[in-house]
Amino acid sequence: MFIGHYALALAAKKIAPQVSLGVLFLACQLADIIWPNLVLLGIEALEIEPGITVMTPLNFVHYPYSHSLVALILWGAIFGAVYALLRRSGTKAAIIIAVLVLSHWVLDVLTHRPDMPITLIDSSLIGFGLWNFPVVAVPLELLLFGAGIWLYIRHTKPLNRQGSIGFWALILFLLVVYAASLLGPPPPSATAVAWSGQALWLVIAWGFWVDHHRVKRSGD
Questions:
Q1: Residue 76 located in a structural domain
Q2: Taking the CB of residue 189, how many other CB atoms lie within 10 A of it?
Q3: What are phi and psi of 94, to 5 degrees?
Q4: Has residue 220 been placed in a domain?
Q5: Domain tally for the chain?
Q6: What is the rounded distance in angstroms from the CA atom of residue 185 to the CA atom of residue 168?
Q7: Which domain range does residue 42 map to?
Q8: Could you give the angle at which helices 21-28 and 200-212 cross, rounded to 10 degrees?
Q9: pLDDT at 112
C-alpha cells in the first residue's frame, strides 16, 4: 500500500490530537524510510521484475530489518519511547505511534505477494497478494484514504489558508504519486527506487507544516 498507510496516520489524529501529523506520517511510513537506505547500503535487496504482480514490478527479495513483523515491533517500541521521552507526552501517544509503525506490516501483508517476513531471518514469508487483484486493491486503498481524510478534517480545522490549501495540496500530491506508481513504466533500477524513496521525507515535512496551521476542533 501507499496512500493506505497515510490514511491511518490521518485517522490517528482523532485519538492523538497532540501529536503532529508529521510524526504520524513518519510512524506509518517508518518501514519505507528505513528500507531504501538499507537497500543502498546493500543490507536489504530489491529487484525490478515486471509481471511479478499485476500492480507493481518490485520484487522485494530481502528486507527483514525494515519490514518484518519482529523488526517493526522493535522499531515501533523505540520510536514511541523516544517520542514520549523527548515530548514528555505520556504512554498514550507512545502506544499510538508504536501501533502506527506496526500497522505498516499489517497493510503490506494484505497487498504484497508472500514476501513479507515475520522474523529477522526470512524464515516465514506471508502475503495475501491483493496487488494481483487491482479491482479490489485500488478501491480498498482509496476507501481507506477517504476515511482517513474525513476523520482528519472532522477533528481539525485550518487556522489560515496554509492550513486549508496546504492540506488539500498534500492530498492531491499523494493521489498523483499513487496514480503515477500504478500507471507509470517500471523504474530503471533498484537503486533508482531506493533514491526516490527519500522523497518520503518531503511528505513528512509537509505533514508537519500543514499541521502547524491547523488546530483541534472545539468539542472533540
A1: yes
A2: 12
A3: -60, -40
A4: no
A5: 1
A6: 27
A7: 3-213
A8: 150
A9: 97
pLDDT at 76: 98
Annotate the chain with DSSP letters as a single string: --HHHHHHHHHHTTT-TTS-HHHHHHHHTHHHHHHHHHHHTTSSEEEE-TTSSSS--EEEEE-HHHHSHHHHHHHHHHHHHHHHHHHT--HHHHHHHHHHHHHHHHHHHHHS-S-EESSTT---EE---GGG-HHHHHHHHHHHHHHHHHHHHHHEEESSHHHHHHHHHHHHHHHHHHHHHHHSPPPS-HHHHHHHGGGHHHHHHHHHHHHHTEEEPTT-
- Cell numbers 525490478: residue: 48
Closest Cα to residue 212, out of 159, 155, 150, 148?
159
Q: Kindly state whether residue 62 falls inside one of the protein's structural domains.
A: yes
Q: Which residues in the chain land under pLDDT 70?
A: 219-220
Decide if 218 is inside a domain.
no
Buried b (16+ CB within 10 A) or exposed e, 133-167: eeeebbebbeebbeebbebbbebbebeeeebbebb
Give the residue from 12, 141, 156 showing the smallest Cα distance to 80. Answer: 12
| CA–CA dist 80, 129 (Å, integer) | 30
Question: Which residue is associated with the grid cell 499489517?
Answer: 106
Mean pLDDT score of the chain: 95
List phi, psi (to 5°) of 185. -70, 165
The per-residue pLDDT for range 100-144, each reduced to its tens digit, is 999 999 999 999 999 999 999 877 899 999 999 999 999 999 999
